[in-house]
């Protein structure tokens, strides 16, 4: 795991890393910020032509037909950074002749390609990567870069697993009493994921009974724009504050504030998705255009935090059936679900409607009553 964390830092800085999959050695580089010279430099370093790994969602969008797995697209020489970006996350779909041409260049993704995509997601970058197999002729030079520490080698399987839940290895780091306007007796407990990349906070309101009665619980995914600035594009800020007040009114409980900005795609990508929405896409299609699924969140850390707090039975404040299922799958008994709304406005109506109509969120009441 250690190498994976270090690789993520290199990737975020725009440096290549080497993925090792059996006999195969593959140089991998993020696409974000890859200027015109990057594919050529990567080709020189590897001794082979680079390819672009694309997620299944991106391929579906580009090809106009459902794809069930990621694939590798071999690139013609001299492709500009702009064309690369357009292929990986541009808003326009390709014209039919171009589509046919690149379909012929597609190959199923192999272990190193899948590892590359997982690293990009974990690094909160666009889920697409430049990859180039290292030729025998270039191996000595690559090995010298590894020896000097200039280049980092990572096991491709470990890279592929980097999104998996670490299962119970979450570290409880620190805590403090933080009186809130709507809940005076509140403690913030910070948990850190074992690779040190993400931190999540359990906000414990009052002294929740962890015995027989279900504990009122809110799982809240971070939303900088809504939670902190009161953005009108979503309902997060109001839901956050309503959840605290509601848990207090219920006699205490827990709010897990999860580092899952933008449904897990990160703030940079959420801002890109907002711009695509301004161009006409809805919240789900915008994420697909960037190569993401409709919801990239995993709730394993939430389950681990609850277990660390001794909570096994909950009354969940949510409109999202996925959260109910995810907790149940993790062994937490969801005794009841309670709706939790923000208010509807002209800026978030489309977002909330898409969540209800396309992602099964239970928002009928808010959309009907307050339309
Ligand atoms: N990708 C993306 N994320 C968004 C968008 N609008 C809001 N978000 C994110 O969506 C998440 C909303 O989280 P939550 O309030 O926990 O959850 P929810 O899935 O709506 O479910 P409940 O509120 O529990 O019913 C936050 O991480 C926001 O940052 C958007 O247009 N695109
Ligand atoms: Zn929000």
TrEMBL record:
Its cofactor is Zn(2+). Keywords: GTP-binding, Hydrolase, Metal-binding, Nucleotide-binding, Riboflavin biosynthesis, Zinc. Residues 172-337 form the GTP cyclohydrolase II domain. It is an enzyme of class 3 (hydrolase). The active site is at residues 295, 297. It comes from the Bacteria. The keyword Hydrolase applies. GTP binds at residues 218-222, 239, 261-263, 283, 318, 323. Pathway: Cofactor biosynthesis; riboflavin biosynthesis; 5-amino-6-(D-ribitylamino)uracil from GTP: step 1/4. The keyword Cell membrane does not apply. Binds 1 zinc ion per subunit. It catalyses: GTP + 4 H2O = 2,5-diamino-6-hydroxy-4-(5-phosphoribosylamino)-pyrimidine + formate + 2 phosphate + 3 H(+). Its EC number is 3.5.4.25. Zn(2+) binds at residues 223, 234, 236. Catalyzes the conversion of GTP to 2,5-diamino-6-ribosylamino-4(3H)-pyrimidinone 5'-phosphate (DARP), formate and pyrophosphate. Belongs to the GTP cyclohydrolase II family. This is GTP cyclohydrolase-2. It comes from Billgrantia campisalis.
């Amino acid at each position: 795991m250690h190498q994976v964390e270090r690789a993520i830092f290199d990737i975020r800085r725009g440096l290549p890393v080497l993925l090792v999959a059996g006999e195969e050695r593959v140089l991998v580089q993020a696409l974000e910020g890859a200027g015109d010279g990057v594919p050529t430099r990567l080709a020189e370093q590897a001794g082979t032509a680079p390819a672009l790994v694309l997620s299944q969602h991106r391929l579906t969008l580009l090809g106009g037909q459902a794809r069930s797995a990621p694939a590798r697209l071999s690139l013609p020489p001299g492709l500009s950074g702009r064309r690369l970006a357009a292929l990986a996350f541009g808003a326009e779909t390709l014209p039919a002749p171009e589509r046919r041409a690149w379909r012929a260049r597609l190959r199923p993704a192999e272990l190193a390609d899948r590892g590359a995509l997982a690293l990009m997601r974990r690094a909160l970058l666009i889920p697409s990567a430049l990859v180039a197999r290292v030729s025998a002729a270039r191996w000595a030079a690559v090995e010298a870069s590894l020896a000097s520490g200039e280049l980092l080698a990572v096991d491709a399987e470990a890279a592929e697993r980097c999104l998996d839940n670490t299962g119970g290895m979450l570290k409880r780091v620190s805590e403090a009493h933080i009186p809130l306007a709507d809940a005076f007796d509140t403690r913030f407990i910070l948990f850190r994921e074992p690779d040190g990349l993400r931190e999540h906070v359990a906000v414990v309101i009052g002294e929740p009974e962890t015995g027989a009665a279900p504990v009122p619980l809110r799982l809240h995914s971070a939303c900088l724009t809504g939670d902190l600035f009161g953005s009108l594009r979503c309902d997060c800020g109001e839901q956050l504050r309503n959840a605290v007040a509601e848990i207090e009114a219920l006699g205490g409980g827990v709010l897990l504030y999860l580092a899952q900005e933008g449904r897990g795609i990160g703030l940079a990508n959420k801002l890109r998705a907002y711009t695509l929405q301004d161009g006409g896409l809805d919240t789900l299609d915008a994420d697909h255009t960037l190569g993401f699924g409709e919801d990239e969140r995993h709730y394993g850390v939430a389950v681990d935090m609850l277990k660390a707090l001794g909570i096994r039975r909950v009354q969940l404040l949510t409109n999202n059936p996925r959260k109910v299922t995810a907790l149940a799958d993790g062994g937490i008994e969801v005794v009841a679900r309670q709706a939790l709304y923000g208010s509807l406005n002209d800026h978030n109506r489309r977002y909330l409607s898409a969540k209800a109509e396309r992602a099964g969120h239970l928002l009928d009441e808010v959309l009907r009553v307050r339309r």
